[in-house]
Automatic annotation (TrEMBL):
Family matches, as InterPro entries: ADC_dom_sf (IPR023375), DUF2071 (IPR018644)
Protein name: Uncharacterized protein DUF2071
């Protein structure tokens, strides 16, 4: 991993619409996907979680620059919920990025230059009508549809390990930290995120075909929850590193 990929400067953006599908996976099956410096953030030491985040991003730019200089794009991120213990003994909760997909070639290039989040460019189609959101991609073999409910919360997906939507919100994201691992330098890269607003709304999943999740071949994987949220101002601090092992 090049030093530039250590998130070398702060970044800010506005997340105008974020929809997250969270999948529960037996912890033993998910462990192989994360580096040794991280541990899974689990439910009852039994379930780990991987999320598919569909994010309409506006005005992404280096922190401090005016919004009109920002870059707007659509992002699909595949993330595992993890924990990391710092050299000072502090336990941090965050995400480990498995892969990122975007509809803009420029974002793929910049993302792979300044992060290790594995960006690729795909086709993405979005539609919103009659209280539903639809996301489709031929290249990513993805077809997701969710229903927005104005009143009562929907039932949790069948087989979800969560006992309530309140419990499920712990695994909705965005989380305070994002981690990556520079194996060549034996360094953990830590990026702290700062959000100004966050009100996740449960949604009913009408369709969920996600090629990347299917390709992982995770035994016992099941849909656990789904949320959507709007208009989140977000800032990522400059990345910092710690040696591993400490």
């Amino acid at each position: 991993m090049a030093l530039l990929a250590h998130h070398p400067f702060g970044v800010e953006a506005r997340l105008t619409r974020t929809t997250v599908l969270t999948y529960a996976v037996p912890a033993a099956a998910l462990q192989r996907l994360i580096p040794e410096c991280l541990t899974l953030d689990t439910l009852d030491d039994t379930w780990g979680f991987v999320a598919v985040a569909l994010v309409q991003t506006r005005e992404l730019r280096p922190a401090g620059l005016p919004a009109w200089l920002g870059h707007s794009f659509f992002l699909i991120g595949y993330r595992v919920f993890v924990r990391y213990t710092t050299r000072a003994g502090k336990r941090l909760r965050g995400l480990y990025i498995l892969q990122s997909q975007t509809d803009k070639v420029k974002m793929q290039w910049l993302g792979n230059l300044f992060t290790s989040y594995g960006y690729s460019t795909i086709d993405i189609r979005q539609a919103a009508a009659e209280g539903q959101l639809h996301f489709d991609s031929t290249k990513a073999n993805l077809a997701i549809a969710v229903e927005l409910l104005a009143a009562d919360e929907p039932a949790l997906p069948a087989g979800s390990p969560f006992s309530s939507w309140q419990q499920a919100r712990r695994f909705a994201g965005p989380l305070p930290f994002t981690f990556s691992y520079d194996q060549a330098r034996r360094q953990v890269v830590i990026v702290e995120g700062v959000r100004e607003a966050w009100q996740p709304q449960p949604v009913r999943v009408l369709a969920a075909e996600v090629g990347f999740i299917q390709e992982l071949g995770l035994s016992g994987c099941r849909l656990a929850s789904a949320f959507t949220m709007t208009d989140i101002p977000y800032r990522w601090q400059k990345g910092r590193t710690e040696p591993w092992p400490a």
